[in-house]
Amino acid sequence: MLKDLSEYNIKFEGLKQGIHFYEFTVDNEFFAGFDCFEFDKSAINVELEFKKQSTMLVLTFIFTGTISVPCDRCLDEVDVDVEGEEKLIVKFGNEDYDQSDEILILPIHEYELNVAEYIYEFINVNLPQKRVHFEGLCNQKVIDELEKIEQKTEIVNDPRWSGLKDINLNKNK
What we know:
- A hairpin with a 6-residue loop joins strand 4 and strand 5 (77-92).
- This protein starts with 8 loop residues before the first strand and ends in a 21-residue tail after the last helix.
- The chain contains three helices and seven strands.
- It has one domain (6-136).
- By secondary structure, the chain is of the alpha+beta class.
- It is 16% helix and 36% strand.
- The longest helix has 13 residues, at 140-152.
């Protein structure tokens, strides 16, 4: 990581049992800490409900915001909404358990947890795969040029393959 992400450390050793709340603001500087530079702009609010119990911690991340990225169709900037809710359970132990995506095992002697990596992962998992403008909002000049290129490159009937049209694959006839 490039950036010091110590502001995302939560010292749970001195916390009383019960629910505690934390808020974080995630922007491009945060993502740069993970060598992620794919967003033009980002502004995401993260609310963390941190529930301390005697044997484990239950963290619920709720995040909402927007990122600006190049549109997949026209490459103009488009704002994409990002929102989600993810849960992380933290257990303590010195043994090697089979860890899953939702359960983290910390050594018994740990007294703090840095949640930056989990915020980064949870936001990325909830990003939409398709990042495009709403219908009709794309840069029309680019769309027109793409349609011209598509028309020029339409598949031409290749005579070498025309003989395959006569093959009967239906053996019941």
